[in-house]
Amino acid sequence: MPVNDFLDHIVEETKKEDTFLNDTNVVNLLFGLLLAGYESTSHAITLVTKFISEHPNVLAELTKEHEAILENRGLSENSDITWEEYKSMTFTHMVINETIRLSNMVPGIFRKVMKDMQINGYTIPKGWIIMAALPVVHLSADKYENPFVFNPWRWQGKELNAGSKTFMGFGIGVRLCVGAEFSKVQIAVYLHHLVTKYNWSVYKGGEIIRRPMNTFPNGIHIKIEEKYQ
Ligand code: HEM
């Protein structure tokens, strides 16, 4: 049987002697592929589309940033985006962070308590698993002015690529999301093509339900046409 995709590789791997891939690990890997690897980025792309459709000033600023990239390229407009161009997309990264902050697509992260801890008069015993509820931080008026407003400019001059005590959308510390940069590249490339090549508008859907991840019960429907036909 030819080995083509991820599942084929896993099946082949399970047949080997002394493989680490027992049934539990296979299920975990497939769960990771579908949820962490696919659902996350596709949800982020849907969310960012919704937010920028509702904020024409953000869309205008994004379009400015990406059209400047095309103008400065000096190559064919159709050549691929370079790593340097990707890294220069400061406003785009601000939009991505703001999307992750406001949507709280990952509502919590888990940690094991390594030693007894005292917090606000409570003892959290060693060995317990705790969940840090990220919206409590990301939507706190103490940490973010008008926290429920989608405002990418709030990220101006701030760290955009690492977790911090006030932003844990991709986690924090040694367990920081391994796919963070990968998903940001995908979102940035999507936005680049969306704003430079197409006129588009949302005409249906966009409502969000949390259970506990964000879902779009009615999808989000956009009308789209090429800008320069
Ligand atoms: C917008 C997209 C994404 C968001 C918001 C996101 C968010 C997160 C968060 C909050 C964590 C927990 C980190 C922690 O406990 O400190 C995490 C972990 C993880 N993510 Fe993502 N993620 C995204 C995309 C991806 C993608 C595309 C992949 C794979 C290609 C991925 C793979 C993982 C893995 C394997 C972990 C576990 C890391 C570990 O425990 O060491 N994620 N992610």
Helix/strand order? HHHHHEEEEHHEEEE
Which compounds are bound in this model? protoporphyrin IX containing FE
Q: End-to-end distance, in Å?
A: 45 Å
Number of helices: 7
CATH topology heading:
Cytochrome p450
Helix content: 40-55%
Low-confidence stretches: none
Structural class: alpha+beta
CATH class: Mainly Alpha
Major sheet, described briefly?
2 strands, antiparallel
CATH superfamily: Cytochrome P450
Give the number of domains: 1
Number of DSSP strands?
8
Primary descriptors:
229 residues, alpha+beta, Cytochrome p450, two-stranded antiparallel ribbon, binds protoporphyrin IX containing FE
Question: Can you tell me about this structure?
Answer:
With 229 residues, the protein is an alpha+beta fold. It has a single domain (20-106, 138-226), classed as Cytochrome P450 (Cytochrome p450, Orthogonal Bundle), CATH 1.10.630.10. It has helices spanning 6-14, 23-54, 56-73, 83-87, 90-103, 134-138, 180-197, and strands at residues 108-112, 117-119, 122-124, 129-133, 198-205, 209-210, 214-215, 220-226. A two-stranded antiparallel ribbon has the order 1-4. Strands 2-3 form a two-stranded antiparallel sheet. A two-stranded antiparallel ribbon has the order 5-8. Helix 2 (23-54) packs parallel to helix 7 (180-197), helix 3 runs antiparallel to helix 5 (90-103) and helix 3 (56-73) packs across helix 7 (180-197). It starts with 5 loop residues before the first helix and ends with a strand. The model has no long low-confidence stretch (mean pLDDT 92). The structure holds protoporphyrin IX containing FE (HEM).
